[in-house]
Design a protein that fits this description.
The structure is a single chain. Helices cover 28% and strands 25% of the residues. It is of the alpha/beta class. Bound molecules: NADP nicotinamide-adenine-dinucleotide phosphate and 3-(4-hydroxy-3-methoxyphenyl)-2-propenoic acid (FER). 3-(4-hydroxy-3-methoxyphenyl)-2-propenoic acid is lined by residues 46-48, 58, 126, 242, 272-273.
Length: 329
């Protein structure tokens, strides 16, 4: 059986373009006895893929000619593994191709009851779990808090803000563009959202929160982290979750200096979602309850067909995505 595989053609320079990807036919052959064969239903596009394309992620870094891999919701179509019979729905890492052979030990059965199964890649999957772990275990917001969240319309940021609202905090998002900010305020129900493309961020923070935020959930890093640190209330908490401002840069930028951290008397917390796998069943239950109750909304940008994945990923890395980016296969 032949499938079209999407590979990294070359290391991107700056934001990825479709020319950094190549489509190549590969022969799948017969399934190795130890593997299960899966058909992809939906593929997740996530910012960490850009770090792998640059060769600076913790694992699975890519060389030119390597297949791009990411997490996908799949249906098992061939299997000798009794726990994963044909027809089972699983989440697993796969190459970007319509059918793949994968290690059954690396397949996670997905059963989200009445929720759309693709939420297992977004609000009830890795990005949502990142938000839930970061908020409940690190940030721990309460009614006295004013929490700032960057990349506020993305799957991590939007979930963080709504969880902080549910805990009674006042929540201010940061997002790029009027349309994203309107969604963050009107649909995700943050108290405010600063459009950093329209208004200087320091000015916006001073306008909305003259006493300074008590917490910052940072998805962006770089100058944005520096600016929020400069406004943080003494003793404020910061959860460091992502540095998307750096992912397209040729060199890892120098981070904020200790001057800003000292000046803010900040408590800084690093978040890695993989440390919090034990929280997944709880988040699938709590998150689904919130979605049913209307207190958690999610935004998705769904493109159709694997051939649309490179351009959709390039849009994500230019900040042009509107919510969680998925490819329906
Ligand atoms: P996302 O928010 O959809 O990410 C894309 C958004 O980032 C863009 O739409 C853009 O929104 C924003 N952005 C800000 N500066 C940017 C820049 N210089 N270039 C491109 N985009 C920029 O993605 P997500 O999945 O929710 O992830 C958010 C962050 O969490 C990422 O940094 C990701 O790496 C991190 N993360 C960390 C973990 C962990 O375990 N630590 C797990 C999952 C995700 P605006 O236009 O609104 O700024
Ligand atoms: C991400 C950024 C960082 C992410 C994971 C990490 C899954 C983890 C880094 C590490 O383990 O050091 O967007 O998404």
């Amino acid at each position: 059986m032949q499938v079209t595989q999407y590979q990294m053609a070359r290391h991107p320079v700056g934001p990825p373009t479709t020319d950094d990807f190549a489509a190549a036919p590969v022969d799948l052959g017969s399934r190795p006895a130890s593997a299960v064969r899966v058909k992809l239903n939906a593929l997740s596009l996530d910012p960490y893929i850009r770090m792998r394309m640059a060769g600076r992620y913790i694992a699975d870094n890519l060389k030119p000619g390597d297949p791009i891999t990411s997490e996908a919701i799949c249906t098992v179509i061939e299997s000798n593994t009794s726990a994963l019979p044909p027809g089972s729905t699983v989440a697993t890492m796969v190459p970007w191709q319509a059918v793949a052979d994968v290690d059954p030990a690396r397949c996670r059965p997905v059963n989200l009851g009445d929720m759309p199964v693709r939420y297992g890649l977004g609000v009830l999957g890795m990005p949502g779990l990142t938000a839930y772990a970061g908020v409940t275990r690190l940030l721990k917001p309460g009614p006295d808090d004013v929490i700032v969240v960057s990349a506020a319309s993305g799957p991590v940021g939007a979930t963080v803000g709504q969880l902080c609202k549910a805990a009674g905090a006042r929540v201010i998002g940061i997002a790029g563009g009027a349309e994203k900010c309107a969604w963050v305020k009107d649909v995700a129900r943050f108290d405010d959202c600063i459009d950093y493309r329209q208004e200087d961020l320091a000015t916006g923070l001073a306008r909305l929160c003259p006493e300074g935020p008590t917490g910052y959930f940072d998805n962006v890093g770089g100058q944005m982290l520096r600016t929020v640190l400069g406004k943080l209330r003494p003793g404020g908490r910061i959860v460091l979750c992502g540095i998307i401002a750096d992912y397209n840069e040729p060199e890892v930028a120098a981070g904020p200096t200790s001057m800003e951290i000292m000046g803010a008397r900040a408590h800084i917390m690093g978040l890695i979602v993989f440390d919090h796998e034990d929280l997944r069943p709880e988040w699938e239950r709590v998150g689904a309850e919130m979605i049913r109750a209307g207190t958690l909304v999610t935004r998705e940008e769904i493109v159709s067909g694997l051939a649309a994945a490179p351009a959709a990923f390039a849009r994500l890395m230019r900040g042009e995505n509107q919510g969680k980016v998925l490819v329906e296969v």
